[in-house]
Known about the structure:
Shape: elongated
Low-confidence stretches: none
Strand content: under 5%
Amino acid sequence: MNEINALCHELILYSTEWYQDEISKEELNLKMDLLLSRIDKIEINYRQPLDISSVKAKDSFNSLLVKTKYKATASINTLIATSNKKTYKAKVNFLLKNQLYFGSLHRTMRNNINAYVLRNQLSYWNPNVEIFKLGGNENE
């Protein structure tokens, strides 16, 4: 969840700068485009101690990830189109409350993994493993 928290922190930083008139709307839009590209690079970390080898489980998780990325991207795009600062602030607060929609996916995946560990009585699972990673060249 560290990657998602970093994205939320960036959103707070960019929004605060614009809200306090430190940057223009055009600069904010460029920074939001950068944020969108980072959201697009979010992947599920399958290289964790618990190897999710089931193709059906991976397909389900990947499908949920695509839906979550779409919601986050659509919400950021509505922020880019918003020019009223009050409306913008309300939308940002909603996005942050929902952790860019990744919070519910994280809870779902964590609960599924914990149930799998309990059902199969696995002892090597580390519950502090990051579920999300930033793909591409940045983390690999």
